[in-house]
Amino acid sequence: MTAHRVSWRTAWETALYGDDGFFRTSAPVDHFRTSAHVGTFAEAVAELARQVGACTVVDLGSGRGELLVALRPLLGQDVELIGVEVADRPADLPDDIAWTTELPARVDGLLVANEWLDNLPCTVVERADDGTVREVLVDPATGDETLGDVHDSAWLRRWWPLSTPGERAEDGGPRDAAWADAVARVDGVAIAIDYGHLRGDRPPFGTVRSYAGGREVDVRLDGSRDVTADVAVDAVADAVGGRLVRQRDALAELGVDGGRPPIQLAHDDPAAYVRALSRAGEAAELTARGGLGDFWWVVTDTRMEGSAP
Ligand SMILES: C[S@@+](CC[C@H](N)C(=O)[O-])C[C@H]1O[C@@H](n2cnc3c(N)ncnc32)[C@H](O)[C@@H]1O
After folding, report:
1. CATH 3.40.50.12710, the chain: domain bounds
2. CATH class held by domain 14-119+172-251+296-301
3. Tens digits of per-residue pLDDT, 96-137?
4. Which atom of ligand 1 is nearest to the CA of 24?
5. Could you tell me the distance, in angstroms and rounded to a whole number, from the CA of residue 184 to the centre of ligand 1?
6. Is the pLDDT of residue 308 over 70?
């Protein structure tokens, strides 16, 4: 049988978003836990929406609507909530949450994209023995790879230059462009939240990984699992005039506090104590070093002069 090799980006796109793609057939929440699944995260997003004076909150890549469902009771009915998602509208989503496949032309308020950019497929490249940077081709059925044509990219030269044969990178140009397109629609604040790296510490062999069933698994491009790569967050921030801040610091600015409640509360109001303890546990999870706290927020306030992409 002859190998059928295509560009990594094409194979990745089909694996996640083709007719039987992972995100069309699987709920992210069934395979991995994100900040959107932690209630205290919604409280911080609601606080930000209030600070922005948002008429609308748009959740781009909204999974099964977990963040929006948690936001609904925290924000007045005058705040419109919109999920933008390639997967179908969840059957049990409350009627007062809108659901669409396309970003609205204008967003008056707050745009949030939690763990969206890492799932935007990239061209995977490798530096060849002859010193050229070449596109990696892959047979989606077997994972067999070969090097294809030279991939000449201004983005790679600037943001992720490869110096040694065998080194790999993911070309983040399309991600920067996708986020810039989203931010350009916003009158207010846009936040992309993801795991990522900076120019000084790019991993030498790229970062493509797979997750399924709650753990990291072998990468496969057959739609059975998530396929993700860390985000070059400094490039994204540069594309949109954004501020880069670690999640633990962003949440602290929004009042998320991992401190334990005073023990006296356990005597005075046991139920309140248990609730406060649970919130402290969630805050600790969202701000943990080596975990969600290390995530980057790319924050763009489009109402600030000079911040427009
Ligand atoms: C890792 S999940 C994150 C889900 C949710 N934001 C969370 O934090 O739990 C990424 C989601 O983005 C969605 N997605 C990816 N590209 C998209 C696009 N262009 N438009 C809408 N949704 C998209 C996927 O279907 C998937 O549900």
Report:
1. 14-119+172-251+296-301
2. alpha beta
3. 999 999 999 999 999 999 999 999 999 999 999 999 999 999
4. 25
5. 19
6. no
